[in-house]
């Protein structure tokens, strides 16, 4: 494929403004516009239209997102699915069936059954189903390079933290109900954040999680408590080859760091340890209000890096390095965490095994 890569959006109610801005800055990309389902609630249609107008791109209502090219009056090479999470899998499936490549915002689906269906459609159609993730974060890539170089020996244990600041909730989330309303989000902060940590553990070790033990609750924020979803969780993973990981995540009143989210990984190896901190490097500013740390927004940096990678891969005729199979494996960890919370015990991860094109 030769540039430009013609990109459209199917819905624009979560993260779409950031993705539109990042893609608009890539000279190899032509933004075609945004479509929204005519049957979506009025507020959803209004939000999608407002995002398109602010980005200066075309907008159209459609009965079926598969008609995106006709609705926008242009051929389309890639469609970015940025609806509320509970529509992700359905919209992506329809687009794949129409012969279009897709990039799906995280989480790729809210149930394993939906993720399995999406994986099967992607395999059958031969189309690309990429999924937004943070494995291209510079700090994480740097730590993986140290592991590969043997600086810490064999990984034995990982401590991972991922926190969002509740002080930014009203501005960092387009509408709070997109996180706390199960009909839109599919779950709470486990579904929202655990995937980042599970991805990081797998990226650094190459090992799958086989068992999960999780505790979760609404410890800090009233919107989560009122909706009956968790704002915080502690998750322990047993991975292949006896490697373990402990994950602490959530949306807390004031997260450490100067950006909306902060995350870190401490990897303990057989011959040393190393730390990856998304808030480093940072600049400290001292003034009347005390010390303030100024750091790049790690989420924005990671998203920009992955979107560039997706554009690189598609223009080169390749597949991105993180797609539906990787996303499904991560969703299996999230699913296990929710089941563990429900039963109060350790549960096994339901991995998808494919043999000669058939799930077994």
Describe this structure in words.
The structure is a single chain. The chain has 360 residues and is of the alpha/beta class. It folds into two domains: 5-134 and 303-322, NAD(P)-binding Rossmann-like Domain (Rossmann fold), CATH 3.40.50.720; 138-298 and 332-348, Dihydrodipicolinate Reductase, domain 2. It contains 13 helices and 17 strands. It has helices spanning 16-24, 42-55, 68-72, 85-97, 112-125, 138-148, 169-172, 177-180, 182-185, 189-205, 222-227, 298-315, 324-343; strands at residues 5-10, 29-37, 58-62, 78-81, 101-104, 129-131, 155-165, 209-217, 232-239, 244-252, 261-269, 272-277, 283-287, 290-294, 347-348, 354-355, 358-359. The strands form four sheets. It has a seven-stranded mixed beta sheet. A six-stranded parallel beta sheet has the order 3-2-1-4-5-6, sandwiched between helices. 49% of the residues are buried. Mean pLDDT is 93; it is low at 355-360.
List keywords for this structure.
360 residues; Rossmann fold; Dihydrodipicolinate Reductase, domain 2; 2 domains; 7-stranded mixed β-sheet; 13 helices; disordered C terminus
Please state the second-level CATH architecture of the largest domain.
2-Layer Sandwich
What fraction of residues sit in β-strands? 25-35%
Please provide the count of β strands.
17
Structural class based on helices, strands and sheet pairing: alpha/beta
Look at the structure and give the CATH class of the largest domain. Answer: Alpha Beta
**If strands are numbered along the chain, what order do they take across the biggest sheet?**
12-11-7-10-9-8-15
- What kind of assembly state do the chains in view correspond to? single chain
CATH topology of the largest domain: Dihydrodipicolinate Reductase, domain 2
Helix proportion range = 25-40%
Radius of gyration (Å):
20 Å
Distance between the amino and carboxyl termini: 35 Å
- Could you tell me the mean pLDDT? 93
Q: Please tally the helical runs, counting DSSP H or I stretches of 4 or more residues.
A: 13
Report the uncertain regions: 355-360
